Design the sequence.
């Protein structure tokens, strides 16, 4: 499990920020309807993000994260992965997500993200659009850099980068030579699921391919360190959030 069920993003709330938010049902190009959550600043039209959750799909942590972005002037849409297998209805804490995770196809994630981008651009006038994902969503976020979505950049927290199955053709490190936009990767240095050797290999692969990237590993931090309940990792959380905001503000897209 990536987060405790009652966890929250380790980001200060900006009290009094003018933000609107909505529970959505979006439709992908193949007709699939899926749940999403949008949060918009009072004056949108600049940078926007599509938030890609961990294995449990859309739930409170990512809705709160979307609000934290909007409070800082960044429109956000957080999406659910399971419209094709679990529908759009709300789920309780007992939802068995793994059978649905196993049916997620990267091509369908791309289609759903495309629908989220369309929503951001049509409803908020968004300019550059980024993706930011966590764990399962971190890997999905990096993969999208190799697609035709015209993203300004992709951000991933502690996503798996190496193939875990012999036929895994979508591992982020394998797609890295085809990336079309800058990459930010944030990892826990004490994450047993993603050894630092794999993180270093991902960085070297991106460098060798000439892809703009920033790969950071926080010494002593575990998997899912970006969690308010992990008080001992406040420094890593604060630095990671700062890097995310800088990445969203400073990097133009790569054209290749």
Sequence:
């Amino acid at each position: 499990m990536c987060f405790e069920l009652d966890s929250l993003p380790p980001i200060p709330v900006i009290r009094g920020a003018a933000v609107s938010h909505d529970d959505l049902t979006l439709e992908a190009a193949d007709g699939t309807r899926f749940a999403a959550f949008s949060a918009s600043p009072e004056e949108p039209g600049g940078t926007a993000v599509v938030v890609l959750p961990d294995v449990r799909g859309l739930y409170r942590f990512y809705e709160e994260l979307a609000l934290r972005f909007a409070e800082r002037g960044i429109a956000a849409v957080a999406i659910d992965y399971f419209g094709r297998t679990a529908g759009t209805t709300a789920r309780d804490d007992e939802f068995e997500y793994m059978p649905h995770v196993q049916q997620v196809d990267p091509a369908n994630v791309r289609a759903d993200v495309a629908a989220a981008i369309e929503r951001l651009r049509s409803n908020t006038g968004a300019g550059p659009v980024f993706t930011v994902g966590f764990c399962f969503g971190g890997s999905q976020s990096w993969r999208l850099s190799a697609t035709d979505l015209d993203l300004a950049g992709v951000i991933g927290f502690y996503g798996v980068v190496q193939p875990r199955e012999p036929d895994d053709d979508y591992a982020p490190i394998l797609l890295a030579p085809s990336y079309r936009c800058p990459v930010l990767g944030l990892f826990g240095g004490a994450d047993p699921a993603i050894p630092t050797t794999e993180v270093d290999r991902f960085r070297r692969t991106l460098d060798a391919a000439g892809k703009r990237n920033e790969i950071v590993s926080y010494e002593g931090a575990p998997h899912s360190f970006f969690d308010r309940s992990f008080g001992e990792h406040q420094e890593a959380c604060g630095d990671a959030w700062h890097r995310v905001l800088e990445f969203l503000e400073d990097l133009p897209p790569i054209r290749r």
Remarks:
- The CA atoms of residues 221 and 229 lie 13 Å apart.
- Residues 252-256 have pLDDT under 50 and may be disordered.
- The longest strand covers residues 19-27.
